[in-house]
Write a structure and sequence with these properties.
By secondary structure, the chain is mostly helical. The chain contains five helices and two strands. A two-stranded antiparallel sheet has the order 1-2.
Length: 127
């Protein structure tokens, strides 16, 4: 534990690896998404579920989560959307994602995904 106390914080939020720029925020989100899918898959399979269902719901959940996060940001912070506005609402790489929109988008797609395959919703929620 004492070794971790000596690791300095980075000077910026990104690391250049050749021509590739890796943003730490994005890398953290990726690690969190992979960990959540793995943990959910392990728990679901332990209850007798199909790993494929977890992957299908996760793919749609991540996609709708990004769309919901961008939509929430655009609605709540319209003045920060790059001009021209019709193009700026799609420019996610310019920054701007809202966690509340992400939660709404991913939860909606997960509900639809479990409903479409006739999975038990209480069992999917862990209840």
């Amino acid at each position: 534990m004492s070794l971790l106390a000596y690791i300095p914080s980075p000077h910026s939020g990104s690391v250049n690896v050749g021509p590739l720029v890796i943003h730490m925020y994005g890398l953290t989100l990726l690690v969190a998404i992979v960990a959540c899918i793995w943990l959910t898959g392990k728990r679901w399979v332990a209850q007798g579920g199909d790993w494929d269902l977890v992957m299908r719901v996760a793919v749609w959940g991540v996609a709708f989560g990004v769309v919901g996060a961008r939509a929430y940001h655009d609605i709540t912070s319209w003045n920060e959307v790059p001009s021209p506005k019709w193009k700026g609402i799609f420019e996610v790489w310019q920054g701007g994602l809202g966690i509340w929109g992400s939660r709404r988008g991913s939860a909606g797609s997960a509900t639809g995904g479990t409903r479409s395959c006739s999975a038990s919703r209480p069992r999917c929620r862990g209840g």
